[in-house]
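Box S1 | Example of a co-folding query
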Amino acid sequence: MSRGKFITFEGGEGVGKTTNVAFVESYLQARNIPLVVTREPGGTPLAEKLRTLLLNKKSEAISEEAELLLMFAARAQHIKHVIEPALARGDWVICDRFTDATYAYQGGGRNMKISTIEGLETLVQSNLRPDLTLLLDAPVKIGMERVGKRGAFDRFESETALFFEDVRRAYLLQAEINPQRIKLIKANQPLADVQQAIINVLSPLLR
Ligand code: TMP
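Box S1 (continued) | Returned holo structure for thymidine-5'-phosphate
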């Protein structure tokens, strides 16, 4: 049994990750690929509890350091109990956000040192990296308009446009540094075009 592929979705708020994760899920299912669809922060009972704490707007002020460590604590549980076992048994894993989100939000948004994030990445992930990352990118204003229509904002969605500009810049930098792994998908085009672009970068993995 060969190891499964690890695919992550990334992007700022309101870029259409949920819709496109569901699209890839049905695309792969139609090709009889066994898969697990999951998300970060989250994916195990403990990691989902950490997610609730991290997204809750009414919690006490969370320090940048605590936020970073909680993200990696959730990730450690997720890798050990969900991601690694799935890949080892040959399932593909589709994950809504992973460590590029930490580089973007805690690195770009919160200005945490990249070398600190790299250290935690090594500690928690060892050699585990996604085989493919789909970075959905759209201007911040467009994403925030979509989020605005969804209702109450969570702790991250309540950040300023400036914060999200920094997040976007950090994501684009990640894509520049890792061109083999991270494929940039323009999210502000008709959905059919977004999905065709996704198929184009996904199909080499299916061969
Ligand atoms: P979402 O999955 O609904 O977009 O919500 C998750 C939020 O958590 C999102 O605002 C981005 C944020 N986040 C980080 O700040 N760092 C991380 O490492 C991850 C995985 C998510």
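The chain is about 55% helix and 15% strand. The chain has a mean pLDDT of 97.
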